[in-house]
From TrEMBL, chain A:
Subunit structure: Tetramer of two alpha and two beta chains.
Sequence similarity: Belongs to the TrpB family.
UniProt xrefs under InterPro entries: Trp_synth_b_CS, Trp_synth_beta, Trp_synth_beta/beta-like, TrpB-like_PALP, TrpB-like_PALP_sf
PANTHER family from the UniProt entry: TRYPTOPHAN SYNTHASE (PTHR48077:SF3), TRYPTOPHAN SYNTHASE-RELATED (PTHR48077)
A GO molecular-function annotation: tryptophan synthase activity
Record function comment: The beta subunit is responsible for the synthesis of L-tryptophan from indole and L-serine.
HAMAP family in UniProt: Trp_synth_beta (MF_00133)
Protein known as: Tryptophan synthase beta chain
Domain of life: Bacteria
N6-(pyridoxal phosphate)lysine, modified sites: K97
EC number: 4.2.1.20
Catalytic reactions of this protein: (1S,2R)-1-C-(indol-3-yl)glycerol 3-phosphate + L-serine = D-glyceraldehyde 3-phosphate + L-tryptophan + H2O
Keyword Nucleus assigned: no
UniProtKB/TrEMBL annotation, chain B:
A single GO molecular function term of this UniProt record: tryptophan synthase activity
UniProt EC number: 4.2.1.20
Subunit structure: Tetramer of two alpha and two beta chains.
Alphabetical UniProt keywords: Amino-acid biosynthesis, Aromatic amino acid biosynthesis, Lyase, Tryptophan biosynthesis
A GO cellular component entry from the record: cytosol
Higher taxonomy: Bacteria, Pseudomonadati, Pseudomonadota, Alphaproteobacteria, Maricaulales
Pathway: Amino-acid biosynthesis; L-tryptophan biosynthesis; L-tryptophan from chorismate: step 5/5
Identification of the protein by name: Tryptophan synthase alpha chain
Catalysed transformations (reactions): (1S,2R)-1-C-(indol-3-yl)glycerol 3-phosphate + L-serine = D-glyceraldehyde 3-phosphate + L-tryptophan + H2O
Species this chain originates from: Marinicauda pacifica
This protein's encoding gene: trpA
Pfam families in alphabetical order: Trp_syntA
Family: Belongs to the TrpA family.
Length: 404, 263
């Protein structure tokens, strides 16, 4: 596919920049690694030794393509536009995360790396990485904030079953960003044999572009499926945003379709006007962290502020640089949803559709409700159901005051 | 010209290696840091590296991570750090001070404005861990306009293809990270470090200071035999936390003596 120069889908540039955002802000020790990864990705991405196992395992191991589903009863309930789900929650391991892990672990093998590390928040990326690592018999170590280890204990056990070693990170404040710091520290210490599988469209170039490419299967399939099912594109494509990988994967194939509004939903926690939220675009400003320049939650001194969300997959204080770019140029809109709204949607979707969503896409659903009214009955909304809620039932029960 | 070049010239003509001492600004408060800076200079530190606290110090091991959190919990900021340099200069006009930190606080201040403020405060150079040569244009030009040194890091993974670029815009000295790892982890084999120092010195035509993981006077002396200066951070930071200013300065004195008498 060729893209026009300056087309939205033509980024990043050779320096890994999406407009002003992105780049390679890493310690010198890692620079040679980052450059080698960029080279290897460019060399292998279209070669059969990469594409053949990637396609085969996407189909037979992950279960792609994921279905497109008409959410009839939610459509009725919200009383407006027709709502369709892209069902990436049906993927092996229960979320979109594995699309990216498969790509990165295959690349790691081709690069001759013998050890995999990853950071994880909700544990979904950790589980997906451990799953693919197990499939190939590569040792895997996952860094997870001590706080998240506690609230996502089923995923910790899953990772261990899959043979991964889980490090509970207590450095810093023991959260997802600290887990990422710890993974970077591990990589600095073991630059030769180790491949760092980053779980979202953030980090130094080439990660934001590479992860997006691996996740773009979501939008490519959905676009073709919509055309096949209803003969037209949706009016809006909606996805939740932690670091932004499921959203970028959904958005990217629609970037040049002007009629399709792209809407990302950030986690507003207790509200974007309180200190307890994780809405980097709606409540942060540009800065430099974890290898890229992007919007960050920070104070006036440039110190990073913790994100808060009921969803452990969304409380990252940054956002992928491509979203920062799409936000500034106005190609995508970024809204937000609170913990309370996500909890409400979690229950509504379970009852009406027979789909227990993860808390992350439950955030997206809250804005789908408004949008359904905004667009009216002729409208069509495509939402990425990026994960299932099995992992969340304990924390949701707790939030609702139910004892299990 | 900054205080760095005359300092390294003096060391060279004395036939000695230098001692670079690291302390985290505001750990646990500003007055303690000021006492440390003054005391370190008296104990024989040839250069003071003043850490700028950051919430996410990706290249630091546990001792300096914890020091940064203590400093931030005590309210230290980049502005507060610059104020410390200003106060230090009221009594010490000769010891070079290099600020070492991460990009985001400098970026939030504005790279150019920060360079100007650092110059006015009396700093001599800046090390920014997460700005590789590919990304440091704004800081580099800001510092250059103020006549301050940008000190880049060379590492064991910096191969011959990259090395010229890394040292190209460095002035004052080059900081060689002795090992692949975080601060405080463990210094590389002296023989390997020695070869690397020669390689960097040749490419840069500048003095080379070696750090990351030097903790004892014995190791300091070994490194001092092969490098132009030895940097100690985590050990001093730990000593300060465990036994206060007096304990940290006592350690610093033994390290300084070891470095100065190694050859
Ligand atoms: C189901 C689910 N959705 C979304 C996210 C957030 O990540 P991203 O914004 O990169 O898609 C996570 C992260 O763990 C997740 O598990």
């Amino acid at each position: 596919m060729t893209t026009a120069p300056n087309a939205f889908s033509s980024y990043p540039d050779a320096r890994g920049m999406f407009g002003e955002y992105g780049g390679r802000f890493v310690a010198e020790t890692l620079m040679p690694n980052i450059l080698a990864l960029e080279k290897a990705y460019a060399a292998y991405r279209d070669k059969p030794e990469f594409t053949e196992p990637f396609e085969e395992l996407s189909r037979d191991f992950i279960g792609r393509p994921s279905p497109l589903y008409f959410a009839e009863r939610l459509t009725e309930e919200f009383g407006g536009a027709k709502i369709w789900f892209k069902r990436d929650e049906l993927n092996h391991t229960g979320a979109h995360k594995i699309n990216n892990c498969l790509g990165q672990v295959l690349l790691a093998r081709l690069m001759g790396k013998t050890r995999i590390i990853a950071e994880t928040g909700a544990g979904q990326h950790g589980v997906a990485t451990a799953t693919v690592a197990a499939r190939f018999g590569i040792p895997c170590e996952v860094f997870m904030g001590a706080h998240d280890v506690e609230r996502q204990s089923p995923n910790v056990f899953r990772m261990k079953l899959l043979g991964a070693k889980v490090h509970a990170v207590t450095s810093g404040r023991g959260t997802l960003k600290d887990a990422m710091n710890e993974a970077l520290r591990d990589w600095v210490t073991n630059p030769d044999d180790t491949f760092y599988v980053i779980g979202t469209v953030a980090g130094p170039h080439p990660y934001p572009a590479m992860v997006r490419d691996f996740q773009s299967v979501i939008g490519r399939e959905a676009r073709a499926q919509m055309l096949g099912r209803i003969g037209r594109l949706p009016d809006a494509a909606v996805a939740c945003i932690g670091g932004g990988s499921n959203a970028m994967g959904l958005f990217h194939p629609f970037l040049e379709d002007e009629s399709v509004r792209l809407i990302g939903v950030e986690a507003a926690g207790k509200g974007v006007d309180t200190p307890d939220h994780a809405a980097s675009l709606n409540g942060g400003k540009p800065g430099i962290l974890h290898g890229n320049k992007t919007y960050l939650l920070q104070d006036d001194d440039g110190q990073i502020v913790e994100g808060h969300s009921i969803s452990a997959g969304l409380d990252y204080p940054g956002i992928g640089p491509e979203h920062a770019f799409l936000h500034d140029v106005g190609r995508a809109e970024y809204r937000h949803a609170t913990d309370a709204e996500a909890l409400e949607m979690f229950q509504i979707c379970s009852k009406l559709e027979g789909i227990i969503p993860a808390l992350e896409p439950a955030h997206a659903l809250a804005r789908v409700r408004d949008l359904a009214k905004e667009l009216g009955k002729d409208g069509v909304i495509l939402m990425n159901m990026c994960g299932r809620g099995d992992k969340d039932v304990f924390s949701v029960a707790k939030a609702l005051g139910v004892e299990l | 010209m900054t205080r760095l070049t005359p300092t390294f010239d003096r060391l060279k003509s004395d036939g000695k290696a230098g001692f670079v001492a690291y302390v985290m600004a505001g750990d646990p408060d500003a007055d303690t840091t000021l006492a440390m800076m003054t005391g370190l200079a008296e104990a024989g530190a040839d250069v003071i590296e003043l850490g700028v606290p950051f919430t996410d110090p990706m290249a630091d091991g546990p001792p300096i991570q914890r020091a940064a959190l203590r400093a931030l919990d005590g309210g230290m900021t980049l502005r507060g750090t610059l104020d410390l340099v200003r106060r230090f200069r009221e009594t010490d006009t000769g010891t070079p001070v290099v600020l070492m930190g991460y990009a985001n606080p400098f970026y939030a201040y504005g790279f150019g404005a920060f360079a100007e403020a650092a110059s006015q405060a009396g700093a001599d150079g800046v090390i920014c861990v997460d700005l590789p040569p590919e990304e440091d244009t704004e800081l580099r030009e800001g510092l250059k306009a103020q006549g301050l040194s940008l000190i880049r890091l060379a590492t064991p993974t910096t191969d011959d293809a990259r090395l010229p670029r890394v040292v190209e815009d460095t002035s004052g000295f080059v900081y060689y990270v002795s090992t692949t790892g975080v601060t405080g982890s463990g210094v590389g084999e002296t023989a390997v470090v020695s070869g690397a120092v020669d390689r960097v010195r040749k490419a840069a035509n500048l003095p080379v200071a070696v750090g990351f993981g030097v903790k004892t006077p014995e190791r300091a002396a070994e490194i001092a035999r092969v490098a132009d200066a030895v940097v100690v951070g985590s050990a001093i930071v730990d000593a300060l936390n465990a036994s206060g200013v007096d304990g940290a300065l006592k350690l610093a004195k033994t390290l300084a003596d070891a470095a100065h008498s190694a050859r």
